[in-house]
Design goal:
305 residues, Arc Repressor Mutant, subunit A, 12 strands, sequence-specific DNA binding, DNA-binding transcription factor activity
Length: 305
């Protein structure tokens, strides 16, 4: 027995006043309407209706059951309207995550313009350098830097960023310029703590020849901004991503090192769950941000030394 359907039939009987009137409204045979009400009473082990040739009156148990059934059906219908709305127009709350600095510098300006175009969408933007679970945190879209490991997700590529080893001119003037990765062992550096995956000192081809090639950690920090600040203060060598130090490299406040040994660039992608039908709030965000972020990535790649 489909209890939800039986509830709907019972409500139709109550609202129309008789089984025959409910049969006409539902365009269902009278025998079927009568059977569904009887099945419901048998399931509940109580009488809900007192039937006569003209009317159907509720019993005390029937009145209590109908009151609750009406609330349940109204809540389901409201949930269906809300769910259908996500697929008929771009509206509702959209949850997006991104790395902190990339989100501040590149995603935020694009997202603000998107919100101006979509007044019925509210955006919850979470900026964090730790990767979060899209399922557990109910995330609609995440901007990720690196290769996608979860095959149940879809990645729309925006561009790529490079790993950059760099230091200030002042530090290099004092301590010298490393020519090969092994030279880093004679230099001071800044390391990262508190990241789900700390930046690695990797080189082209991931060769084991330079497996231990890293500077001596003089300082450990838990934000990229702090590492860049320490490098600008001539403390030592840092390993970051190209977009994080684009301004400093362009202005000469930091100088790139060991570029010939740099590993392959990392992809930058917008990632979302695979679905046959995406909510329009998700589709509209992707349609708006993808071309604009791709243009920003192209410009950044051209400007960054």
């Amino acid at each position: 027995m489909d209890r939800f359907e039986a509830m709907s039939v019972l409500l139709a009987v109550v609202e129309e006043g008789s089984l025959s009137a409910a049969s006409r409204r539902l365009r269902t045979p009278l025998a079927t309407v009568s059977r569904k009400v009887a099945d419901l009473e048998r399931h509940l082990r109580t009488q809900l209706l007192v039937r006569s040739s003209r009317r159907a009156e509720l019993t005390d148990a029937g009145r209590a059951y109908v009151a609750v059934s009406r609330r349940i059906i109204e809540q389901v219908e409201e949930a269906e309207r809300q769910a259908a709305g996500e697929y008929s127009a771009p509206r509702g709350e959209l949850h997006v995550t991104a790395p902190t600095m990339f989100g501040q510098r590149h995603l935020m300006p694009v997202a603000l313009a998107f919100l101006a175009e979509q007044p019925e969408i509210t955006l919850r933007l979470r900026l964090a350098d730790q990767q979060v679970s899209m399922v557990d945190e109910h995330i609609d879209i995440t901007l990720r830097i690196g290769h996608l490991e979860d095959s149940s997700l879809v990645a729309t590529r925006l561009g790529s960023v490079r790993r950059v080893i760099c230091a200030s001119p002042g530090y290099l003037a004092r301590c010298g310029v490393p020519r090969v990765p092994d030279d880093l062992a004679q230099h001071d550096g800044v390391s990262f703590q508190g990241f789900a995956a700390s930046p690695e000192w990797r080189y082209r081809g991931d060769s084991t020849a330079f497996a231990s090639a890293a500077p001596r950690p003089r300082l450990a920090v838990n934000t990229t901004e702090a590492a860049i600040g320490a490098a600008l203060a001539d403390l030592g060598i840092i390993r970051v991503l190209s977009y994080q130090v684009a301004d400093e490299l362009r202005a000469g406040r930091l100088q790139p090192l060991l570029a010939d040994f740099a590993p392959q660039p990392l992809p930058v992608s917008l990632v979302y769950a695979a679905a046959e039908l995406l909510p329009l709030k998700v589709r509209s965000f992707l349609d708006w941000t993808v071309p604009r972020l791709r243009a920003r990535m192209t410009e950044l790649d051209a400007e960054c030394p």
